[in-house]
Design goal:
Polyamine Oxidase, Chain A, domain 2, five-stranded parallel β-sheet, single chain, FAD/NAD(P)-binding domain, seven-stranded mixed β-sheet, 2 domains, alpha/beta, 400 residues, binds flavin-adenine dinucleotide
Length: 400
């Protein structure tokens, strides 16, 4: 079997790695001149700054890190929350804690009903009750404290405004165990030399990677798939797509239609060198989910230098970067200079009006009979630990 993988992000690289382990010939196509997609570490002299994926929330990934002999560390992340006047405020107030515990107990019981829908590795059948914005769902059950607790995390994950994100996607990422993990402040897992090392190690085991070759057409004919780039054309038995492709790239009515429904949120990270020495990860409570506004920042200190990485929604512009810089100054951050700005498109998902109960199940049904498969964050929650489980599952199904 000859397989093409479109996209050399974590999903594509892991899929290719697993297929090659099974002795299957794989060709990876990547439109950029670098590997890794949203896993991107900026490496300067003895200093690593994550511009994309920072940490792992699920311990499942350890297995892969050990297999690839990648050093990792597990540590606590301390968090601050700021109000609209840049004053430190509690995540929730002391007297709300009892309320939160009560609400979480109720939420646990409520979500039991949706267990089948929520506990699958990949997106699957969606219970109709979860096809409403998260804010709406939480209001119905009067879960106001839960709302305040999970909004900062959802917005920092790139899910945007919870007035719009569906309860289904939100609870796939923040199931009840994850919410408890966050409020109990459990340790997160970090790759010591940065997530680029993970991609690098995967790439050492993949024999055919094509860079700076954007796939412009995927066409199925006579049980073979032709993959075209601007400069080449090649035939495969199967094509695995890991990323949203532009309109009419996939020459198949069904898949092209599916692709058009998948949307992403524009998300920016910008890194600064700052003079402050010790800064905890900080969330801007009044900005959460709002376009053009700083959502949160984290910092790292290496070689006597502090790097601060700030996140915002929107398309990078001088105005947004200047607004972020101002917000940081008001927070008491002493900025030395801007290091870099990176534009991302994050969290492939469907709009309210396009998401149906059977959307993902319909995809799986048709891809069982097709030479084209959608994999990775197109069909699974985008957290890397979960992507690892999802890709492993998909590759097993493909081989079987
Ligand atoms: C700022 C930021 C912070 C994050 N933090 C975390 C975190 O801390 N923990 C966590 O678990 N997750 C985090 N994530 C999410 C995580 O990074 C992503 O969900 C994950 O990396 C997605 O990997 P992927 O391979 O599915 O997709 P991508 O990384 O998007 O890879 C898709 C690849 O396809 C390529 N491509 C696109 N079109 C074409 C084409 N036509 N032809 C060829 N190639 C093409 C792209 O260039 C890209 O390299 C973060 C994301 C961002 C942006």
């Amino acid at each position: 079997m000859k397989v093409a993988v479109i996209g050399a992000g974590f999903s594509g690289m892991l899929a290719a790695y697993l297929l090659e382990k099974e002795g299957i010939n794989v060709t990876v196509y990547e439109k950029q001149e670098y590997l890794g997609g949203h896993c991107r570490t900026l490496t300067t002299i003895n200093k690593n700054t994550e511009l994309g994926t920072v940490a792992f929330f699920s311990k499942a990934i350890k297995e892969l890190l050990i297999e690839l002999q990648i050093d990792y560390t597990e540590r606590f992340v301390y968090r601050h929350f700021l109000d609209e006047n840049y004053n430190n405020v509690e995540h929730i107030l002391g007297d709300e804690v009892a309320m939160l515990m009560n609400e979480l107990g109720r939420l646990k019981v409520i979500l039991e009903k949706y267990k089948d829908t929520l506990e699958t590795t990949n997106y699957g059948n969606i219970h109709p009750d979860l096809l409403v914005p998260l804010s709406h769902f939480l209001k119905i059950y009067n879960l106001n404290t839960v709302y305040h607790v999970i909004v900062p995390y959802l917005s920092s994950f790139g899910f945007g405004n919870i007035e719009y994100v569906q309860a289904y996607y939100a609870f796939k990422v923040f199931n009840i165990n994850t919410i408890y993990t966050f409020i109990q402040g459990e340790k997160l897992l970090f790759i010591k030399r940065g997530t680029t090392e993970l991609i690098q190690k995967l790439s050492e085991n993949i024999s055919d990677i094509r860079l700076s070759l954007e796939v412009t057409s995927v066409n199925v004919k006579d049980n073979k798939v032709t993959v075209d780039t601007l400069y080449s054309s090649e035939e495969f038995d199967k094509v695995l797509i890991t990323t949203k492709l532009s309109t009419n790239v996939v020459k198949d009515e069904l898949y092209n239609g599916l692709m058009q429904k998948i949307i992403t949120n524009p998300f920016i990270t910008c890194a600064f060198e700052v003079n402050n020495k010790k800064l905890a990860t900080t969330y801007y409570k009044s900005n959460l989910g709002n376009k053009g506004k700083i959502q949160f920042f984290y910092t790292s200190r290496q070689n006597h230098k502090t790097t601060l990485v700030a996140y915002a929604y929107g398309i990078a512009s001088k105005k947004i970067i200047s607004d972020i810089t101002m917000d940081l100054s008001h927070t008491g951050i002493d900025i030395k200079h801007l290091i870099t700005v990176k534009q991302w498109y994050i969290f492939p998902h469907l709009k309210n009006e396009d998401l149906s109960e059977t959307f993902y199940e319909d995809i799986y049904r048709s891809q069982k009979r097709s030479n084209i498969w959608l994999i990775g964050s197109l069909i699974s929650k985008p957290e890397l630990g979960n992507l690892y489980l999802s890709i492993r599952k998909t590759i097993k199904e493909l081989i079987d």
